Amino acid sequence: MRLLLKLLAAPVVLALALFIWICFRLLSCAAFLFGLAGTIVGLLGVAVLMTYSVQNGIILLVIAFLVSPVGLPMAAAWLLGKLQDLRYFIQDRVYG
Predict the structure, then answer these.
(1) Segment (H or E) for 86
(2) Are the beta carbons of 20 and 83 closer than 8 angstroms?
């Protein structure tokens, strides 16, 4: 019975490992691009804040925060970490 469980869990653990690896690579590239976009939108937000409208400047600064590396990419990294925790949980339970 234990051997059957190991045989069934092996493809799941492998699929999770490959999925996490691919997502990590994509997240690295996306965080770099979002960092550049966040910088541009942040500078634009400060310029709009000083020259045109306080409300629109704050909106742009919030958008800049969300696309910065501490916004959405950090949330994606947290989710990817939880997925990796799931992989290790399955691996520890089945393979001991």
Answers:
(1) helix 72-95
(2) yes
